[in-house]
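Ops channel
N.P.: pipeline sanity check, posting one input/output pair.
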């Protein structure tokens, strides 16, 4: 953490010359700074990790490790990369040497002999900039925390909404057209809210480098087919004509099948959104040497020349479609660019101008190797018993969420019990002996992770499936759940299609 004044700042002064080191330390101490010293690169790295100084005054010429290399290691270390480095040199150097130092991570570069006032001014200036950087990092951290909390709070009410809708459809499957349309509208807009929450979290995770891709050899045709399934309703609802043209030969790309499909689906949804009803959308794929070029063309609202360069920016939109009430958050294209880059590809957009449509192009490297065969199936540690009816315990402190899911499962022939606290969950698991436990993480008396550990230690047969059903849907939440003893981790609102993995076939 950076200091708010000179007396709180700790500076590491690194120089192999005793005289030069003494002179610089004296100047800094008289200016009110706390100073520690090192006479070689090895000691400098050690003291940086141990004492965590706010700034290092680092000479280039050291007896063991070149100061430029010391700086590179400091800036590359997770524990030391935020330490400010003021590189110094007593030898005659050229512009190229300064550039080399700055490219290596140094925050500034001074040539000795250094005037006392110049040294103090540079140190103070760097510490001020460091405080600004710290404030920006704090803002970024709070933003990520806010997004995670927002996602959790939004997912909690979305869960019972989706489940209640499925319950209504099961209770009365045949209804008048107006009522059926109202149900479908609720379902579509619930799905839209879920996508917005997921997109916000994806952008945040990618920005932090926390997103992980499941690399495999993926059929391009399957990617586009999946994207079309995701976007088909929006395209059909606005009456667009869709043309798809793919190569006759199967093409394979290396990447994450879900994320690749998400890239194409986001572009299709973008075209559907910003093309007037009854418009035209075409998607083509062409092999070009070791790459494949995917083009998505529409005759929509187009993009102004001034907006072309910024269209992939976060929260950016090039224009407003007059037939729409709202155009979303402007994060879909930013997410597309980030995901394409992670896959080693490029994305670009072209448009003749406003009102003249747009063409988005994605270039992805083809997989040089043969398609990877699917891995051998590994039996799950626990499976529900065969048969239509299963014993299910639903645990959630949100009574609406627990009760509606329990009622829906009961209507499909399952025997269901509910619990609203961790203590109740443990008691009812022992009494009820369920086949499946749906367990929320944020419970009032204990966390779902603690409950999972307690359930796995009960002196009963451990044949039940333990499923986390929670508003916390990030990758680290999933990993924490699996480590606590869960077999599955589903983010709220539950995707009923995923329940097929558990043998629960629910058609909302």
């Amino acid at each position: 953490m950076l200091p708010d004044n000179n007396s709180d700042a700790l500076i590491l002064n690194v120089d192999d010359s005793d005289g030069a080191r003494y002179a610089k330390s004296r100047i800094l101490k008289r200016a009110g700074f706390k100073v520690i010293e090192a006479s070689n690169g090895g000691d400098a790295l050690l003291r940086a990790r141990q004492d965590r100084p706010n700034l290092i005054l680092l000479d280039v010429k050291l007896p063991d490790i070149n100061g430029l290399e010391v700086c590179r290691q400091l800036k590359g270390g997770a524990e030391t990369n935020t330490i400010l480095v003021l590189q110094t040199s007593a030898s005659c150097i050229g512009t190229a040497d300064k550039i080399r130092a700055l490219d290596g991570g140094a925050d500034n570069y001074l040539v000795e002999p250094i005037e006392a006032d110049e040294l103090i001014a540079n140190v103070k200036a760097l510490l001020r900039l460091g405080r600004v950087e710290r404030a920006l990092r704090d803002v970024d951290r709070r933003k990520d925390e806010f997004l995670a909390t927002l996602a959790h709070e939004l997912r909690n009410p979305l869960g019972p909404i989706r489940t209640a809708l499925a319950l209504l459809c099961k209770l009365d499957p045949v209804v008048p057209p107006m009522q059926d349309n109202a149900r479908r509208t609720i379902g579509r807009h619930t799905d839209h809210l879920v996508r917005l929450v997921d997109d916000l979290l994806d952008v945040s995770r990618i920005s932090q480098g926390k997103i992980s891709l499941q690399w495999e050899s993926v059929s391009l045709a399957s990617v586009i087919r999946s994207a079309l399934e995701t976007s088909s309703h929006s395209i059909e609802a606005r009456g667009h004509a869709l043309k798809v043209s793919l190569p006759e030969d199967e093409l394979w790309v290396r990447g994450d099948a879900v994320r690749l499909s998400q890239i194409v689906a986001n572009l299709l949804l973008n075209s559907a959104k910003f093309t007037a009803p009854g418009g035209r959308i075409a998607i083509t794929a062409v092999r070009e040497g070791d790459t494949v070029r995917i083009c998505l063309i529409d005759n929509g609202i187009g993009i102004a020349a001034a907006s072309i360069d910024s269209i992939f920016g976060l929260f950016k939109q090039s224009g407003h479609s007059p037939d729409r009430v709202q155009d979303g958050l402007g994060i879909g294209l930013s997410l597309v660019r980030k995901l394409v880059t992670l896959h080693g590809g490029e994305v670009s957009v072209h448009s003749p101008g406003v009102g003249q449509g747009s063409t988005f192009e994605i270039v992805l490297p083809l997989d040089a190797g043969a398609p990877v065969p699917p891995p051998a199936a590994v039996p799950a540690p626990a499976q529900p018993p065969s048969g239509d009816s299963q014993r299910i315990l639903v645990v959630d402190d949100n009574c609406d969420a627990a009760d509606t899911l329990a009622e829906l499962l009961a209507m499909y022939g399952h025997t269901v019990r509910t619990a609203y606290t961790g203590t109740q969950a443990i008691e009812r698991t022992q009494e009820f002996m369920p086949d499946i436990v749906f367990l929320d993480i944020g419970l009032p008396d204990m966390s779902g992770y603690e409950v999972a550990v307690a359930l796995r230690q009960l002196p009963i047969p451990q044949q039940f499936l333990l499923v986390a059903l929670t508003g916390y849907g990030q990758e680290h939440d999933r990993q924490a759940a699996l480590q606590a003893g869960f077999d599955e981790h589903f983010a709220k609102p539950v995707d009923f299609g995923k329940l097929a993995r558990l043998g629960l076939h629910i058609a909302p």
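N.P.: looks fine end to end. The CA atoms of residues 452 and 485 lie 6 Å apart.
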